[in-house]
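Fold this: AB hydrolase-1 domain-containing protein
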Amino acid sequence: MNPTTEFAGAFQVIAMDQRNAGGRSRAPITSQDSWDSYTADHIAVLDHLGIEQCHLYGQCIGGPFILNLIQAQPQRIVSAGLAQPIGRVEAALPPRTERFNMWANTLTDHPEVSEQVLDAFCQNLYGPGFAYCVDRAFVSETEASPCR
């Protein structure tokens, strides 16, 4: 499903160009970057566009992005759809995944990136477990209804 075409008939659709994920958005990568860094990006875009409330839809990594935005600014979110969100059931963070390492290998134009920065960044994103940016208690307390 492509939400930019599926929802365009009824909504103004804003698609995310996640920084440093292969699109046009770039920024330095630091050992302090986390889900909150991306949430700040999302809030800045909404503020810049003057959007006070919105509906959110996200697939895969979009799930944690949405959950963190709901946690940060719940008054802004009218509804949210999470399709196959990423997360982790087991408690321990495994070593950096092959997918993370493949992404890291594309960062040849980021001289600020070292193995130490990458390890910290990976831990900040994937260390917390479950939905990565919020805990099980937050998710279970978030009002939800099944899709129809």
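The two ends are 16 Å apart (CA to CA). Strands lie at 54-59, 77-83.
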